[in-house]
UniProtKB/TrEMBL annotation:
Keywords: Membrane, Transmembrane, Transmembrane helix
Organism phylogeny: Bacteria, Bacillati, Bacillota, Bacilli, Bacillales
Protein name, UniProt field: Sodium:glutamate symporter
Top-level lineage group: Bacteria
Transmembrane stretches, start-end: 6-23, 35-56, 62-83, 104-126, 166-186, 229-251, 263-280, 323-346, 358-379, 391-413, 419-437
GO molecular function, a single term: glutamate:sodium symporter activity
Record carries keyword Transcription: no
Length: 475
């Protein structure tokens, strides 16, 4: 790939995004379904790109862009810092603890239940399917195409032929389940009053409905804190975000090469950005007084639009047509699981802004981080639910469990230790529920409608300004 290849890919993406914005401002169906321009553009890119009609000359690299853009998005979250409100620390810790327990439970359930279903049911109908088949759902739904390729190749090295194709198909189906299922569930939630920041379509202003803001309603998108004579303010803020993005990648590569540990790069970039925030210093003597949080917000939000586009446009549809029966049964089990974790586990383990946090995890658990961000963007345009910040903070807790599943799973499942593997993840799932109940992070009996906003009030009922910025622009 050359820089000109990158230029062409982003030019085509920009054309489709702008055309989709025009379509959204005119077409009632798109407005009624809260469909962001970037998501619509992604579908256009999928239809017109090399994966289907092959009309637009996208390069073969478009599938890798989303993973890089995610790093930039999390750097934009970290550079604005994170702090606990002095009178609100207990609530923040409870919120993040409950969310961490929820995320770990979801991951473990997606791993072990499909394996049990595959062993006890699918293998009886299709005898040639081995005991490792069930793990392919988790590699695709939760891991995405990258994990699917890695685990699939491991399976094939152990004698499970076609594992990579099956895993990639799982990832593709997971994305489609995430997108279309997520939109359906969001409409259901808005009608029932479960959403905090986006209500029923009839109550949404024309600005939000069409996406075109009237002159009298247009907010400022930032202040010029740096004189253009010295350095353009946008270049200044862009540099602040690119530094932790690049350093996060380099640091994560060093960690992987030196100690063999594989952390999410976006988490490392987020941590580096937080360190930069601390070093810049907030106050009259610190450099941070020249950082405008709203400019950072807009840069992160702009990156999110392109992340959504490339995440959707790079789907490989032809793979879905293969291995219909066993894969169809496995995908059906996955669909049931993600629906239950959204509507049953979600409200039970999340109190404030429960639907916003749960729909993000639903999207994240169906294959691509970009889908989770897309769904969150629809219901929480300005990250008031603190979902993105909490995800960055508690994300590393999932890493050891994921590493064990993707590395040891294939060998254990094909080596006769399938029930031991299942038992490990079943036990972790039970522990998550027990811990949630023990620490009073279990909200089963509390009505779903009318639960509070995650950032609305502190313990004394006084409005608190979150130090976490939005990474999304209002639809």
């Amino acid at each position: 790939m050359t820089l000109y290849t990158l230029l062409v890919d982003f030019t085509l993406a920009s054309i489709l995004i702008l055309l989709s914005m025009l379509a959204r401002s005119k077409i009632k169906f798109l407005q009624k379904n809260f469909i962001p321009a970037s998501l619509l553009a992604g579908f256009l890119g999928l239809a017109l790109g090399p994966g289907f009609l092959n009309i637009l000359p996208f390069s073969g690299e478009i599938g890798s862009y989303a993973g890089v853009i995610i790093i930039f998005v999390f750097a934009s979250v970290g550079i604005n810092g994170f702090s606990f409100s002095p009178g609100n620390m207990k609530k923040d810790l409870n919120r993040m603890g409950a969310y961490a327990s929820y995320k770990i439970l979801i991951m473990c359930v997606i791993i072990f239940i499909p394996i049990v279903f595959s062993i006890l049911v699918i293998s009886k109908w299709v005898p040639e399917i081995n005991y490792g088949f069930g793990l392919l759902l988790a590699t695709g739904f939760y891991g995405g195409h990258g994990t699917a390729a890695a685990v699939g190749s491991t399976f094939e090295s152990l004698g499970f032929t076609n594992a990579t194709d099956l895993a990639m198909t799982s990832a593709t189906v997971g994305i489609l389940v995430g997108i279309f299922g997520g939109l359906i569930f969001i409409k259901m939630a808005t009608k029932k009053g479960y959403t905090q920041y986006v209500k029923d379509f009839s109550q949404i202003s024309e600005d939000m409905r069409t996406g075109l803001v009237k002159p009298e309603n247009r907010p400022s998108i930032g202040k010029g804190t740096i004189s253009p004579i010295a350095l353009d303010p946008i270049a200044f803020h862009l540099g602040l975000l690119l530094i932790p993005s690049g350093l996060g990648y380099l640091l994560n590569t060093y960690i992987a090469d030196t100690w063999g540990l594989d952390f999410p790069t976006f988490t490392i970039a987020f941590i580096v950005a937080l360190v930069m925030y601390a070093l810049l210093g907030k106050g009259q003597k610190g450099v941070y007084k020249y950082v405008d949080e709203e400019v950072v917000n807009r840069l992160g939000s702009s990156a999110t639009d392109y992340l959504v586009f490339f995440g959707v446009a790079s789907i490989k549809l032809p793979i879905v047509l293969e291995y219909a029966l066993p894969l169809g049964l496995l995908m059906l089990s996955g669909l049931i699981i993600v629906i239950l974790i959204l509507w049953v586990a979600g409200p039970a383990m999340n109190y404030e802004s429960w639907f916003e946090r749960s729909i993000f995890v639903y999207g994240y658990a169906t294959g691509v981080f970009a889908i989770g961000l897309t769904l969150l963007r629809i219901v929480d345009p300005r990250n008031k639910s603190k979902t993105i910040t909490d995800t960055a903070i508690v994300g590393p807790l999932n890493t050891p469990i994921e590493l064990f599943a993707w590395s040891a799973g294939p060998a254990m499942l094909l080596g006769g230790q399938h029930w031991a593997f299942v038992g490990i993840f079943a036990v972790i799932s039970i522990l998550c529920i027990v811990i949630s109940i023990k620490f009073k992070w279990w909200y089963w009996k509390i009505p779903l409608a009318g639960r509070p906003d995650a950032s609305a009030l502190d313990s004394d009922g006084v409005s608190v300004k979150s130090n976490t910025q939005s990474i999304h622009r209002s639809s």
